Amino acid sequence: MLAVLVGAPQAARAQHETAVDIQDGGRAFRQSCANCHGPDGDLIAGIDLGRAQFRREYTDAELVGIIRNGIPNTPMPRSNMSEVQAQKIVTYLRAEAESKRSVNVAGDHARGQTLFEGKGGCVACHRVGATGPRLGPELTTIGRQRRAIELRQSLLEPNTEIAPNNRFYRVVMKDGTTVTGRLLNHDTFTVQVMDAKEQLRSFNKSDLREHGPAPSPMPSFQGKLSDQELADVVSYLVSLKGTSR
Predict the structure, then answer these.
(1) I want to staple 53 with a disulfide (CB 3.0 to 4.6 A). Which of 48, 64, 203, 205 is the partner?
(2) DSSP codes of every residue in 153-219
(3) pLDDT digit string (tens) for 72-98?
(4) Helix axes 19-32, 83-101, angle to 10 degrees
(5) Long-range contacts: 238-241, Cβ < 8 Å, 24+?
(6) What is the bridge-based pairing of β-strands 178-186 and 190-194?
(7) 24: exposed, middle or buried (Cβ count in 10 Å: 0-12, 13-18, 19+)
(8) In terms of pTM, does the model score above 0.90?
């Protein structure tokens, strides 16, 4: 949805919007709009919903109408969303744009790619396209899946939020041998991981001395990258949408 949504300068805000309204709007945006517009709202050329970059100005009321009624003869469809729900999406987008205006450092994705492949050492674990290992999360389309603010948090606090398919697991066999790898599956009796050599390892829990979740091997770049370097790497990651840039 919001396939060609355009507009929105600093229009008048709803007087009684709250943090809960913004959170609700963010959830609704991700469920109903991000498939076409991307998690940051910048997937359609010339439109960046999350930064209030539009083709012309719209009031909040006009944006609510577009979300609910669509735009004829365009990919933007009608929705069954209530006016209150649509207003919360607009409130969320306004708040996102405001927060991004407060960030003074703009990133450059070309510099970010150089950092990703060099100083950051990211290619040691992450795969982009046909290049790189498979132990860490595959990043070819990460720009379609996660917002810039979430990517930045992952660089600074990698253990704060980990997707279920990216969790690591540690097993200790009865002879003391320890294996840590990306968790692929586990049930009542067995556990399967991908080890550091990208080999599938399967263990019977009855044969283990201990087993359980392990912290992410992803290092924190807090203090290791400057604010500008962080912005550059995030810009590069946001640009990874599975299409040529």
Answers:
(1) 48
(2) HHHH-TTS---GGG-EEEEEETTS-EEEEEEEEE-SSEEEEE-TTS-EEEEEGGGEEEEEEE---PP
(3) 888 888 888 899 999 998 888 887 777
(4) 100
(5) 238/40, 238/42, 238/109, 238/143, 238/148, 238/151, 239/109, 239/112, 239/143, 240/128, 240/139, 240/140, 240/141, 240/142, 240/143, 241/38, 241/43, 241/141, 241/143, 241/144
(6) antiparallel
(7) middle
(8) no
Identify residue 221 by its one-letter amino acid code. Answer: F
User: What's the alpha-carbon Rg for the chain, to the nearest Å?
Assistant: 21
Compute φ and ψ for 192, nearest 5 degrees. Answer: -125, 135
